[in-house]
Amino acid sequence: MNSTFSDEDRQYLQMGRNHLNNFVNKAAAEIPIKKGRLLEIGAQGRSEVQVAFNGFDIQSFDIVNTHNPDFLGDLTTHNPEIPNQTFDVIACLEVLEHTLQPFDAVAELRRMLRDGGYLIISAPLNFRIHGPIPDCWRFTEFGWRVLLKNFDILKIDELKAPSRPLFPIKYNILAQCNHAKQIRAQDLVFSPVKM
Questions:
Q1: Per the confidence metrics, is the pTM higher than 0.85?
Q2: Residue 193 CB neighbour total at 10 angstroms
Q3: Domain residues for 109?
Q4: Which of 28, 79, 158, 187 could join 52 via S-S bond, C-beta 3.0 to 4.6 A?
Q5: Is 57 part of a structural domain of the chain?
């Protein structure tokens, strides 16, 4: 695999980072709770969440110990050291594409979120393979709706590619946890994408 970033890769990476930072700040402003417990998945030393949610008790979760997370574990399995419905907000930014079982990861995020809590989640769609390896998945808007079928999706925010209609660079999503929801994927109904 060629690890050299092209000029277009660097442009998309910078656009994506700026777009994500803006979304995190908007989500922090829109979420009605201003204090509570927040879990950041795979923070990797980023600071956007810490700055935007400075009124929260913020803890981190990662699969590797490189950045000294508060919780070390695999998001795709049950993590018994975190009780059910512990967190008011979870930020899972640019992580889901690196998991081996994204449906299991979303189920674990839902388990850790209190009923009515908020999930801020993002992943690229139209972006090159990148680290940390493995980089396994890309999710369209339809894919996000399936993954988050048992959440109430409040906002789907897309970063459009300048030259590729209907192939956004990435999606950022704000969703609310709804433990009463038990929707089967095969019962979902989809609307056409706006052209």
A1: yes
A2: 10
A3: 7-179
A4: 28
A5: yes
